[in-house]
Amino acid sequence: MKADKVLDAKGLACPMPIVKTKRAINEMESGQVLETHATDKGAKNDLSAWAKSGGHELLSDTEEDRVLKFWIKKG
């Protein structure tokens, strides 16, 4: 999936992946896609809930080599 911006939040503990994702998505235009990489297992539930509550869309999430990858479309 093509992203307009990639955010590396690997090695960060909660709540930093969400804090950095929020900061990055605020700099983007509506409809653009942010790809976030995180290693904190809690990020899966946290980012999904955050995207929904913020009016954004979690397009996809995968895990590769213990790195969680999320694609979030800005609302």
UniProtKB/TrEMBL annotation:
SUPFAM superfamilies: SirA-like. Residues 7-31 form the UPF0033 domain. PROSITE patterns: UPF0033 (PS01148). Keywords: Transferase. It comes from the Bacteria. It is an enzyme of class 2 (transferase). The keyword Transferase applies. One of its GO terms (molecular function) is transferase activity. It holds the Pfam family TusA. Its EC number is 2.8.1.-. Belongs to the sulfur carrier protein TusA family. PANTHER family: SULFUR CARRIER PROTEIN YEDF-RELATED (PTHR33279). This is Sulfurtransferase TusA. The lineage of its organism: Bacteria, Bacillati, Bacillota, Bacilli, Bacillales.
